[in-house]
Every structure is written in C-alpha cells, then in structure tokens.
Amino acid sequence: MSYQTLQVERRGRVGWLIFNRPDVRNAMNNAMRDELREAWTELAADPEVRVIVNAANGKAFQTGADVRELATDGQGMERYRASVEAWDLGFTSWHLGIDKPVIAAVNGICAGGGLHFVADADIVLAASDAQFTDPHVSVGQTSAIETIALMRKMPAEAVLRMALVGRYERMSAQRALDLGMISEIVDPPDRLHEAAQDLAEKIARNSPAALAATKRALWGALESGLTDACRAGAAELTGLWGHPDQTEGPAAFAAKREPDWKTL
C-alpha cells in the first residue's frame, strides 16, 4: 500500500513505520490516523518482519493531533470524539494488540498525542536533543489517555507535572531517562536510526513465538494483580511448550550456529 503521511520500509527483518509530515512537525491529521492503522496492521501481518521501529522524518518526532485541522475542519473534532467514545484508537500498536516488539526512536519534540507512541512502545530510544511536553491543557483539552498510560512506566508526580504545566515546560531526554520514560539516549542525534536498527536486529535474532508470548505476558501484568499476572504468564510459558523453537533453540546453541526460528 502507498501512504501519504507515513513511510513504511523493511530493513532486513526490521519493519520501519516513519511519520512523514515534517513540514507540520508530524502532526497527526485524519489521513495519518487512518494510515497508521493500516501500516501497523501491514507490518504485524508480514512474517518477514520480526521487530517494528517507529520513527520520524524531520526535526520533530510527533506532535499529536493536528490542531489546525481540528480548528478548521468541521468534522475533525467530532470524528476524533467518536473514535474515543467507541474506544477505537487503532493508530497505536498497543490499541491494535500488536504482539511484535516495538521500538520508538524519538527525535526532537514529542508533544501531546505523540506521547501515545512513547507510552505504547516496548522500548524507547531518544536522541540527545529530544524533548517531551504535553500541551493538552494549554489548548483547552483534557490530558488523559497518553498520560495515564505513561504512569505505567514512570512516577505519577512527574506525569502530573507534565500534564498540568502544559506547553510551558519541556522535559529533556536526560530527565526522561532518569524517570524511566526512555531506556537510552543516543548522541549524536543523527545516530538515532542506526542505534534503533542495531537494537531491533538483536531482538530479531530471538524466537518470534517466544517474543510474542513474552510481550503478551509482561504487558498483561500491567493490567492485573500479581497472582493473576503470574498465572497468565505461566499460561504463556506452557503454551509455548511443544513449539518447534523450543527444540531448535538448544540444538542451535549446542551446534554454535544461528537458530532457524519458525515464523508465527
């Protein structure tokens, strides 16, 4: 499929989903929202893609809803409202239930709805020039879904500060690292995509079936109490028993060769 607002690529076993509206800081208009559902689904269904990197072209990562479109398109806000009320937020990997590992590679500014993609990624890398801010309250909107999701990754007070101060304060990449929002800072910034590809290739060397089961188990733990989470995780563990990868893994290790994993 061809995309107007995104760039979708395969680099070996790594799929890249790249925001591609650099002239408006990759703000998410209706077209991008629709294309994101298609792109995530396309990469998730491709058996050759084992890891997905979410990145951006231009000087900004993602700045959330295209406020100019909302202000000038009579149907823009109503359409967005309808999708939220129906809990149909299929523009992010988590809401679509993507069980392939997702790496977010954040450069420049990440604002508002852009925080969806940080909260929903499995691993977040940020360029040293990355900055994070949540301007919802500064444009008369409630900060809720993205910031609630971020509370799974970082201290509540830091999330509240970002949500309540709005566009008048930005969080640096170093502060985001200290708070656990991201796991690595890449410096210089122009190495960000290279670093994301390197990390994705390491992950892609592992069993796709085991990666998917592990991701389901660990994300599922955030939805449950300890006992229920452990029981659900145990079900994922035993559910993989008997899969060909469980035989291939030890055999490849003993033979000192790369394993030949089965696709999902």
Automatic annotation (TrEMBL):
Record-given protein name: Enoyl-CoA hydratase/carnithine racemase
Organism of this sequence: Actinocorallia herbida
PANTHER family for this protein: ENOYL-COA HYDRATASE, POLYKETIDE BIOSYNTHESIS ENOYL-COA HYDRATASE PKSH-RELATED
Family membership: Belongs to the enoyl-CoA hydratase/isomerase family.
SUPFAM superfamilies with a match to the protein in the record: ClpP/crotonase
Transmembrane domains' residue ranges: none
GO molecular function: catalytic activity
Recorded superkingdom: Bacteria
Compositionally biased residues, Basic and acidic residues: 255-264
Region (Disordered): 241-264
Entry-linked CDD domains: crotonase-like (cd06558)
